[in-house]
Write a structure and sequence with these properties.
Length: 318
């Protein structure tokens, strides 16, 4: 049985070329089906992970909108994405495992999986060198994502040997598995968050003395927080007048600042107010809330303005 499967999956003799080619299509389709089946659950887990680690709290609404738009069209793009994943990792890994580990007395699916893991490591190196991504994150993620496609190939191989399953049989079963994984991803994400496997972002705790200093952003805004509660602003965004069609006002002048709890999503921050008659720009008399973000070593202040939720981030000037 094992030798027959080896010959039909990777035909070596000319007499088996036609049968091997047909089964090769079946195995490639099975790999794509397995890869596609897990993508909805992967999206849910990635969304929860990204939301938990989002220090600005801006990812949740966009992800929910994307989810609402993406679900109805899933049958159109999931097979394409599954096929791409199969082509760049699973199928090359299966070929690599078949050639390099052929002498090992392991089940064929184990060799295919090890080959796919090796290919994932290569992609991890490429991602780290070319794009500066985390090698560990990429390699580990691709190793996990290779499991289901490899098992789908093994499932198709057994069915092909007995003549009871074809590529379409694998695809509709993959659809059932995909729905089940998608549903299970929500309680799994909740459990992972509750147990700490998915860590929620915790902003730094800054005292008034630590907040004092000069803050600036890439747009040229400068906020000087002086000890005692005085503030100096230059080209600073501020809450716009509600009767003005603008996301925010650009203000300069002097004013006050004070630490405040619950500026955004229950987190600590500060409120900056310009002195009456000091600011230039419509709406500069309004108080603007800036929320603490970043890390202990690199703290930040951020604010979200307007209906378009424009994000402005201030970093400490050194």
């Amino acid at each position: 049985m094992g030798a027959t499967a080896e010959r039909t999956l990777w035909p070596m003799g000319s007499g088996e070329t036609r049968r091997g080619a047909g089964q090769g299509v079946t195995y490639a389709g099975a790999a794509a089906a397995g890869a596609a089946a897990q993508l909805p659950a992967v999206f849910v887990l990635s969304w929860v992970h990204g939301t938990a680690g989002d220090q600005y709290g801006t990812s949740s609404d966009g992800a929910m909108l994307l989810l609402a738009v993406a679900v109805p069209f899933a049958p159109l793009y999931l097979p394409v994405l599954g096929f791409l994943h199969a082509c760049v990792q699973v199928l090359p890994g299966a070929a690599l495992g078949h050639v390099v580990l052929r002498g090992a007395r392991w089940p064929q699916w184990v060799r295919h999986l090890l080959g796919a893991v090796i290919v994932g490591v290569v992609w991890g190196v490429v991602g780290a060198v070319v794009w500066g991504w985390s090698f560990t994150d990429i390699a580990c993620s691709l190793a996990v994502l290779a499991v289901l496609p490899v098992l789908a190939m093994a499932y198709a191989r057994v069915g092909s040997a007995t003549g009871v399953r074809g590529v379409w049989g694998v695809w509709w079963r993959a659809g059932v598995v995909s729905v089940a994984l998608f549903v299970l991803a929500f309680p799994a994400a909740a459990l992972a968050t509750a147990t700490g496997l998915i860590e929620e972002y915790e902003p730094p705790r800054l005292s008034a003395a630590q907040l004092a200093g000069v803050w600036q952003d890439e747009e040229g805004a400068v906020l000087r927080l002086l000890p005692g509660g005085r503030a100096e602003l230059a080209r600073m965004p501020a809450e716009a007048d509600p009767f003005v069609d603008a996301e925010f006002a650009v203000c300069e002048g002097t004013g006050t600042w004070a630490a405040e709890d619950g500026t955004y999503a229950g987190r600590d921050g500060i409120v900056v107010r310009l002195d009456t008659g000091s600011g230039t720009g419509s709406g500069c008399g309004n108080g603007t809330e800036w929320t603490i973000a970043g890390t202990d070593r690199a703290p930040e202040l951020f604010a979200i303005f307007g209906d378009l939720e424009e994000l402005r981030v201030l970093t400490r000037a050194f």
